[in-house]
Amino acid sequence: MKKFFKTVGVCLGFPILNFLIVSFIQVFFLGYTKNNISLFQKNIFSLTILGDILTLVLITIILLPSNERLLRRIKIKKINLKEYFYIIALSIGVSILLLFLSGILSKIIPSYGDVVNQLNVASKSSLQLVIAIILIPIYEEIVFRGIIFGYLRKNFNIIVAVLVQALIFGIMHLNLVQGIYTFILGIVLALIYMYSDSILGNITVHIIFNLLGALIVPMLLSKFPIMVIVLLILGIVLFIFSVIKIIGKYEKSLYK
Questions:
Q1: What is the DSSP string of the chain?
Q2: How many angstroms from the chain centroid is the CA of residue 184?
Q3: Nearest CA-CA partner of 236 in 112, 82, 101
Q4: What's the pLDDT score for residue 180?
Q5: Distance from chain centroid for Cα 250
Q6: Phi-psi bin for 174: left (phi > 0), alpha (psi -120 to 50), beta?
Q7: pLDDT digits (tens, 9 = 90+) for 59-72
Q8: Are 172 and 99 within 8 A, CB to CB?
Q9: pTM of the model
Q10: Is 35 exposed, middle or buried, given 0-12, 13-18 or 19+ CB atoms closer than 10 A?
Q11: First vs last C-alpha separation in the chain
């Protein structure tokens, strides 16, 4: 029973804590600006990262009494150049394929348009882009792969650990389309974490995914619509190539 409550606390407690903190900051901001929605949308990622930082501070305080503090729970190791190349290739391939999936799903589920509009407004600010592309992925990898997956991996079957953390990661995006493709992304990120044995590997994948999705791919397709075919082929080729190269070491890492 103790293990059950600890698992719930780690897997759901920290994400819910973050949700409550970010929501409070957003509501406070709206109240302070007298419901200025335009200003809110322009600063949405600044408010989010502020909540993320406060969450990490609280998580650090919560973990202080334990033997495993925050920095000990996440693996920060150098990755050799060859492995980094394969990780980047996989990142680009997976990102392109997931972006195509999100495009298909957005046609079926129109509510995803709200997320796209939010990104379009925020993308006009360099600061918001830096936060969305770099800082938020770093926070999410520390919490979802470093803490949640790290705990599940030590206490449960590896397949259960990978799927549960990916499911929580998808649900916490609070949008059906995002939930579907971030669930798949969450699986990839966990596998990369095991392959590289360093949180730097999955942070790289996450940053590349956000960079391509928020900036590069939309910009390319808006100027050169024909690039959709080129990108799809590139995504498939890079995905197959990187998986073939990675799978050998991945099989060894799986049972570490």
A1: -HHHHHHHIIIIIHHHHHHHHHHHHHHHHHHHTTS-HHHHHHTHHHHHHHHHHHHHHHHHHHHTTSSS-HHHHS------HHHHHHHHHHHHHHHHHHHHHHHHHHHH-TTHHHHHHHHHHHTTSHHHHHIIIIIHHHHHIIIIIIIIIHHHHHHS-HHHHHHHHHHHHHHTT-SHHHHHHHHHHHHHHHHHHHHHSSHHHHHHHHHHHHHIIIIIHHHHHHH-TTHHHHHHHHHHHHHHHHHHHHHHHHHHHTT-
A2: 11
A3: 101
A4: 93
A5: 21
A6: left
A7: 888 876 665 566 66
A8: no
A9: 0.91
A10: exposed
A11: 27
- How far is C-alpha 103 from the chain's CA centre? 18
Q: Are 144 and 186 in contact (CB under 8 A)?
A: yes
Q: How confident is the model at residue 203 (pLDDT cuts 50, 70, 90)?
A: very high
Which of these, 247, 236, 255, 254, lies nearest to 86 by C-alpha position? Answer: 247
At which residue do the structure tokens 């799986």 appear? 254
C-beta of residue 141 within 8 angstroms of C-beta of residue 199: yes
| Mean of pLDDT values over 205-219 | 92
| Model confidence pLDDT, tens digit, residues 148-168 | 999 999 889 999 999 999 999
Q: Please give the structure tokens belonging to residue 199.
A: 């949180």
Burial class (CB in 10 A: 0-12, 13-18, 19+), 104: exposed
Is 173 in contact with 182 (CB distance < 8 Å)?
yes
Tokens of 44: 């949405």
What confidence tens digit (pLDDT) does each residue in 105-134 have? 888 887 666 666 677 766 778 899 999 999
CB 18 within 8 A of CB 51: yes
Compute the residue count for the chain: 256
